[in-house]
Design goal:
There is one protein chain. The chain is 51% helix and 12% strand. It is an alpha/beta fold. The protein folds into 2 domains: 3-240, Spore Coat Polysaccharide Biosynthesis Protein SpsA, Chain A (Alpha-Beta Complex), CATH 3.90.550.10; 245-308.
Length: 318
């Protein structure tokens, strides 16, 4: 590969001392540099790697304060970009991600098919059965929210941290604005959509061993919902009003207005009828139902347009 295709692997590590050396050892020769980012790990994973790993490709980067997985990945990205790497792959240090899949994540970027790739553990339905049921349900809910907020309707499994990105795309990301904690994977998708970058899923299997996940989906769905609503509002404003205008720019506000009017008007007269015991006139019912139905149709038309607008042309230069 040319220099613009030199591959770097970024491994954020926190409380994964028992697995980190095995992860590094499994990384193939196609990778030129490996950045282990010690996110102020209480187990001193960075020092442990320096003492026991002889791989000359490894560079340990330390955080004086814990910044979360997003902060650790951003630090790794910056180090890789400064060293002139062309493609950066992020894998976790807990052994759940098979380093042998790195070529699968890199190939679509090298071939000009994508700017960003991410793992999808839901590709093989037979393998999905091995996934914990709560995690399965949580990922389904988070995936739906992510589709709405990021605009990547073609992607699933948004919390999957196995990713690859071209350096020429990553350098345009606002590193200081991207979420530092577990919302990182979905927040970066929102940022990529504002760049109109092409993102695709790569089928993979997850490995569940004796590692302990720090991510508890049941505890973060509420927080994620608020952040998804924020990103959805920003994306709609950026893509449909600030940088471009289309029929969808009209469909959404009119649809929301008509649906809101129909529902409020209908609920008001339903409550009034319930209190007085008088039947609601047919004309009043139609005056509530028609705007609501028209509004719903306009909103569905907007969603259809949004789905068709998923970025399909890569932005990075070879």
């Amino acid at each position: 590969m040319g220099k613009n295709s030199d591959i770097a692997v970024v491994i954020p590590t926190f409380k994964a001392r028992n697995h980190i050396l095995g992860v590094v050892a499994a990384i193939g020769p196609e990778v030129k540099r490996i950045y282990v980012v010690d996110d102020c790990c209480p187990d001193q994973s960075g020092a442990y790697v320096e003492q026991h790993c002889q791989d000359p490709r490894v560079t340990v980067v330390r955080h004086a304060e814990n910044q979360g997985v997003g902060g650790a990945v951003m630090t790794g990205y910056k180090a890789a970009i400064d060293d002139g790497m062309g493609i950066m792959v992020k894998i976790d240090s807990d052994g759940q991600m098979d380093p042998a899949l790195i070529p699968d994540f890199v190939a679509p970027i090298v071939n000009g098919e994508a700017d960003y790739t991410k793992g999808n553990r839901f590709f093989d339905l037979e393998k999905v059965r091995a996934m914990p049921k709560l995690r399965l349900f949580g990922n389904a809910v988070l995936s739906l929210m992510c589709k709405l907020s990021s605009g990547y309707w073609n992607l699933f499994d948004p919390t999957n941290g196995y990713t690859a990105i071209h350096a020429n795309v990553a350098r345009h990301l606002p590193f200081h604005k991207i979420s530092r904690r577990y919302f990182f994977e979905t927040d970066i998708l929102f940022r990529l959509n504002t760049l109109r970058a092409v993102a695709i899923d790569v089928p993979m299997e997850a490995v569940y061993g004796d590692e302990v996940s720090n991510l508890k989906i049941s505890k973060i769905i509420g927080e994620f919902l608020a952040k998804h609503i924020r990103n959805f509002s920003k994306r709609i404003f950026y893509n449909y009003y600030l940088r471009d205008m289309s029929l969808a720019s009209i469909e959404l506000p009119f649809g929301l207005g008509l649906l809101g009017f129909g529902m409020v008007y209908g609920i008001y007269h339903w409550a009034h009828s319930a209190q007085t015991g008088l039947p609601t006139p047919a004309g009043t019912v139609m005056l509530a139902a028609l705007p609501a139905l028209m509004g719903l149709q306009l909103i569905l038309a907007f969603i259809s347009y949004d789905i068709a607008s998923v970025p399909r042309r890569r932005i990075h230069r070879a």
